[in-house]
Specification:
Structural class: alpha/beta
CATH topology: Glutaredoxin
Order of helices and strands: HHEEHEHEHEHEEH
Number of helices: 7
CATH architecture: 3-Layer(aba) Sandwich
Strand content: 15-25%
Largest sheet: 7 strands, mixed
CATH superfamily: Glutaredoxin
Shape: globular
Radius of gyration: 17 Å
Helix content: 40-55%
Length: about 180
Protein backbone atom coordinates (compact mmCIF):
# COMPACT_ATOMS: atom_id res chain seq x y z
CA UNK A 1 0.00 0.00 0.00
CA UNK A 2 1.41 3.35 -1.02
CA UNK A 3 0.82 6.30 1.32
CA UNK A 4 0.53 9.78 -0.06
CA UNK A 5 3.05 12.06 1.77
CA UNK A 6 0.54 14.92 1.62
CA UNK A 7 -1.97 12.86 3.59
CA UNK A 8 0.66 12.14 6.25
CA UNK A 9 1.49 15.85 6.54
CA UNK A 10 -2.19 16.74 6.90
CA UNK A 11 -2.66 14.04 9.56
CA UNK A 12 0.37 15.35 11.45
CA UNK A 13 -1.00 18.88 11.30
CA UNK A 14 -4.33 17.68 12.71
CA UNK A 15 -2.56 15.92 15.61
CA UNK A 16 -0.53 19.06 16.37
CA UNK A 17 -3.66 21.21 16.23
CA UNK A 18 -5.52 18.86 18.55
CA UNK A 19 -2.59 18.86 20.96
CA UNK A 20 -2.66 22.63 20.99
CA UNK A 21 -6.37 22.55 21.76
CA UNK A 22 -5.90 20.05 24.57
CA UNK A 23 -7.98 17.43 22.77
CA UNK A 24 -5.25 14.93 22.01
CA UNK A 25 -5.40 13.47 25.53
CA UNK A 26 -8.99 12.42 24.95
CA UNK A 27 -8.16 10.86 21.59
CA UNK A 28 -5.15 8.99 23.01
CA UNK A 29 -7.14 7.49 25.89
CA UNK A 30 -7.03 3.75 26.33
CA UNK A 31 -8.12 1.35 29.03
CA UNK A 32 -4.79 0.66 30.71
CA UNK A 33 -1.27 1.98 30.63
CA UNK A 34 0.07 -0.60 33.08
CA UNK A 35 1.15 -0.32 36.68
CA UNK A 36 1.65 3.08 38.27
CA UNK A 37 5.29 4.15 37.77
CA UNK A 38 7.45 5.21 40.69
CA UNK A 39 7.26 8.53 42.47
CA UNK A 40 10.51 7.84 44.34
CA UNK A 41 12.63 10.22 42.25
CA UNK A 42 11.17 13.31 43.91
CA UNK A 43 13.83 15.32 45.73
CA UNK A 44 11.30 16.28 48.39
CA UNK A 45 7.58 16.37 49.13
CA UNK A 46 5.45 19.34 50.12
CA UNK A 47 2.14 19.04 52.02
CA UNK A 48 2.81 15.33 52.70
CA UNK A 49 5.40 12.74 53.58
CA UNK A 50 6.69 10.81 50.52
CA UNK A 51 4.07 8.67 48.81
CA UNK A 52 4.50 5.51 46.76
CA UNK A 53 2.35 2.94 44.98
CA UNK A 54 2.01 0.55 47.97
CA UNK A 55 0.84 3.42 50.22
CA UNK A 56 -1.74 4.43 47.61
CA UNK A 57 -3.17 0.95 46.96
CA UNK A 58 -6.92 1.01 47.44
CA UNK A 59 -7.12 4.69 46.49
CA UNK A 60 -7.97 6.31 43.18
CA UNK A 61 -5.05 8.59 42.30
CA UNK A 62 -4.79 11.57 40.00
CA UNK A 63 -1.16 12.43 39.23
CA UNK A 64 -0.90 15.96 37.84
CA UNK A 65 2.38 16.94 36.18
CA UNK A 66 2.55 20.72 36.28
CA UNK A 67 4.79 23.71 36.76
CA UNK A 68 3.79 27.01 38.32
CA UNK A 69 4.59 29.34 35.42
CA UNK A 70 2.79 27.28 32.75
CA UNK A 71 -0.38 29.11 31.65
CA UNK A 72 -2.05 25.83 30.66
CA UNK A 73 -1.28 24.44 34.13
CA UNK A 74 -2.66 27.59 35.75
CA UNK A 75 -5.89 27.14 33.84
CA UNK A 76 -6.27 23.47 34.83
CA UNK A 77 -5.35 23.89 38.53
CA UNK A 78 -8.76 25.19 39.66
CA UNK A 79 -10.33 21.95 38.37
CA UNK A 80 -7.66 19.77 39.98
CA UNK A 81 -8.04 21.66 43.29
CA UNK A 82 -11.81 21.23 43.13
CA UNK A 83 -11.57 17.49 42.45
CA UNK A 84 -9.07 17.08 45.30
CA UNK A 85 -11.50 18.70 47.73
CA UNK A 86 -14.76 17.20 46.46
CA UNK A 87 -13.63 13.59 46.05
CA UNK A 88 -11.12 13.13 48.89
CA UNK A 89 -13.71 11.58 51.20
CA UNK A 90 -14.59 9.05 48.47
CA UNK A 91 -11.00 7.85 48.12
CA UNK A 92 -9.38 10.20 45.57
CA UNK A 93 -5.78 11.22 46.24
CA UNK A 94 -4.42 14.00 44.05
CA UNK A 95 -0.65 14.21 43.72
CA UNK A 96 0.97 17.16 42.03
CA UNK A 97 4.34 16.51 40.44
CA UNK A 98 6.03 19.88 40.04
CA UNK A 99 8.54 19.47 37.22
CA UNK A 100 9.97 22.88 36.33
CA UNK A 101 10.17 24.02 32.74
CA UNK A 102 12.42 27.02 33.47
CA UNK A 103 15.48 27.41 35.72
CA UNK A 104 13.76 29.92 38.02
CA UNK A 105 11.00 27.38 38.76
CA UNK A 106 13.52 25.16 40.60
CA UNK A 107 13.37 27.35 43.70
CA UNK A 108 11.47 25.38 46.35
CA UNK A 109 10.82 28.48 48.47
CA UNK A 110 9.01 30.12 45.57
CA UNK A 111 7.16 26.86 44.92
CA UNK A 112 5.91 26.85 48.54
CA UNK A 113 4.65 30.42 48.05
CA UNK A 114 2.88 29.44 44.84
CA UNK A 115 1.21 26.45 46.55
CA UNK A 116 -0.17 28.77 49.23
CA UNK A 117 -1.28 31.38 46.67
CA UNK A 118 -2.94 28.75 44.47
CA UNK A 119 -4.61 27.01 47.42
CA UNK A 120 -2.92 23.68 46.75
CA UNK A 121 -3.16 21.54 49.87
CA UNK A 122 -2.68 18.12 48.30
CA UNK A 123 0.73 16.37 48.20
CA UNK A 124 3.27 17.78 45.75
CA UNK A 125 6.39 15.91 44.68
CA UNK A 126 9.27 18.24 43.84
CA UNK A 127 10.77 16.84 40.63
CA UNK A 128 13.56 19.31 39.79
CA UNK A 129 15.75 16.58 38.29
CA UNK A 130 12.95 15.10 36.10
CA UNK A 131 13.31 11.64 37.69
CA UNK A 132 9.56 11.22 38.23
CA UNK A 133 8.81 12.79 34.83
CA UNK A 134 11.12 10.28 33.14
CA UNK A 135 9.84 7.30 35.17
CA UNK A 136 6.35 8.09 33.91
CA UNK A 137 7.55 8.79 30.36
CA UNK A 138 5.75 12.11 30.52
CA UNK A 139 6.17 14.79 27.86
CA UNK A 140 3.53 17.42 28.62
CA UNK A 141 2.44 20.16 31.03
CA UNK A 142 -0.16 19.67 32.28
CA UNK A 143 -0.54 15.92 32.14
CA UNK A 144 -3.12 14.06 34.21
CA UNK A 145 -2.75 10.33 34.88
CA UNK A 146 -5.65 8.49 36.50
CA UNK A 147 -4.77 5.42 38.58
CA UNK A 148 -7.32 2.87 39.80
CA UNK A 149 -7.53 1.27 43.25
CA UNK A 150 -5.34 -1.63 42.10
CA UNK A 151 -2.52 0.70 41.09
CA UNK A 152 -3.09 0.55 37.33
CA UNK A 153 -2.89 3.72 35.21
CA UNK A 154 -6.22 3.66 33.42
CA UNK A 155 -6.45 7.00 31.64
CA UNK A 156 -4.27 9.93 30.66
CA UNK A 157 -5.16 13.44 29.57
CA UNK A 158 -2.63 15.89 28.13
CA UNK A 159 -3.13 19.63 28.04
CA UNK A 160 -6.11 21.72 28.99
CA UNK A 161 -9.74 20.95 28.47
CA UNK A 162 -12.26 18.11 28.67
CA UNK A 163 -12.66 18.75 32.39
CA UNK A 164 -16.12 17.15 32.40
CA UNK A 165 -14.66 14.06 30.73
CA UNK A 166 -11.80 13.91 33.22
CA UNK A 167 -14.25 14.21 36.10
CA UNK A 168 -16.26 11.32 34.63
CA UNK A 169 -13.08 9.22 34.68
CA UNK A 170 -12.61 10.06 38.37
CA UNK A 171 -16.22 9.17 39.13
CA UNK A 172 -16.04 5.90 37.18
CA UNK A 173 -12.84 4.84 38.95
CA UNK A 174 -14.31 5.72 42.34
CA UNK A 175 -17.42 3.67 41.51
CA UNK A 176 -15.40 0.56 40.67
CA UNK A 177 -15.30 -2.10 43.35
CA UNK A 178 -11.96 -3.35 44.67
Amino acid sequence: MKVNPGVLLKAGAVVLALTGLGLAGHLLAKDSYGAMPSLSGASQWLNSPPLDAPALKGKVVLVDFWTWDCINCQRSLPYVNDWARRYADQGLVVIGVHTPEYDYEHDVGTLREKLAKLGIGYPVAVDNSYQVWNAWGNQFWPAHYFVDRQGQVRHAHFGEGDYAGQEKVIQALLDEKD
